[in-house]
Amino acid sequence: MTVTPGTLVLAGTPIGDVSDAPPRLAEELAGADVVAAEDTRRLRRLTQALGVTPKGRVVSYFEGNEAARTPELVEELVGGARVLLVTDAGMPSVSDPGYRLVAAAVEKDIRVTAVPGPSAVLTALALSGLPVDRFCFEGFLPRKAGERLSRLREVAGERRTLVYFEAPHRLDDTLAAMAEVFGADRRAAVCRELTKTYEEVRRGGLGELAAWAAEGVRGEITVVVEGAPEKGAEGLDAAELVRRVRVREEAGERRKEAIAAVAADAGLPKREVFDAVVAAKNAASGAVSGAVSGAVSGKGPAGPS
């Protein structure tokens, strides 16, 4: 007898206010053969709030067991089960468990569908006050400072609005790193506790936001950052051009390529950017030479006594 494969359902769950749950979520929770949840305790609170009792088997599916549990769930799907996947908040597989299972199901020609729900990415983007016509989602940045800076340098010239998730205890370091790479005046918005009682959207330059976050921030955080200026943007002084070249050099680009890329991004002749870099280098060399000469002649500034 031929068994008809089942269906994998990815269900969006509320990012804060439980009343945002889509009506179909309750139906799927009640009718699924298997409910795979990132945290079964949170699932229990959600079903209680919705007045739903799952008829199917409830299993955990989180980062720690995702690789091992995926084959089990695929076997259920191949056998004809309807498997519902939910995470703690938002849509499965978007910075949450789910990608492995979707990829494995697709490989087996199993139908995959979704129950659309709230999204922290789109909600923060809409509330940010920044351009929304083109954007890219960057997820969580690396925890290590060096890797974080490297990742940010990769998108320093990205013109689309950028959206990130971040843990509250790392927010100040992340914003400071963004200010260093993107510039302290680059506009951004920190969206905290979206749809919850203490929802807050803090807007400003990255430098200003980094100083604010240094005092301590709590809650679920989504950061939205303005994209790089368009070509031909006005107001890029020599210091900013030199800073952009330096960022690219630190990311591994040769100076010639870095100058060409910065010039293309700013809509300027390469010679103008090259001259700015040379002038900055000469100014730095002159300052060092003057300090050494003054120290040797005894006319330099006195050191601490």
Structural notes for this entry:
- Helix content is 44%, strand content 17%.
- By secondary structure, it is α/β, with parallel strands linked by helices.
- Helix 3 (66-78) runs parallel beside helix 4, helix 9 (238-250) packs across helix 10 (255-266) and helix 9 (238-250) crosses helix 11.
- Residues 300-305 have low confidence and may be disordered.
Supply the number of helical segments: 11
What's the story with the biggest beta sheet?
Answer: 5 strands, parallel
Shape, principal axes of CA atoms: elongated
Query: Helicity level, as a percent range?
Result: 40-55%
Ranges where pLDDT stays below 50 over 5 or more residues in a row are 300-305
What characteristics describe this protein?
17% strand, five-stranded parallel β-sheet, 11 helices, elongated, 305 residues, alpha/beta
Topology:
Blueprint: E1 7-11, H1 23-31, E2 34-37, H2 40-50, E3 57-60, H3 66-78, E4 82-86, H4 99-107, E5 111-115, H5 120-128, E6 135-140, H6 145-154, E7 161-166, H7 171-182, E8 187-192, E9 200-205, H8 206-213, E10 221-225, H9 238-250, H10 255-266, H11 270-297
Parallel strand pairs: 1-4, 1-5, 2-3, 2-4, 6-7
Antiparallel strand pairs: 7-10, 8-9, 8-10
Helix pairs in contact: 3-4, 6-7, 7-8, 9-10, 9-11, 10-11
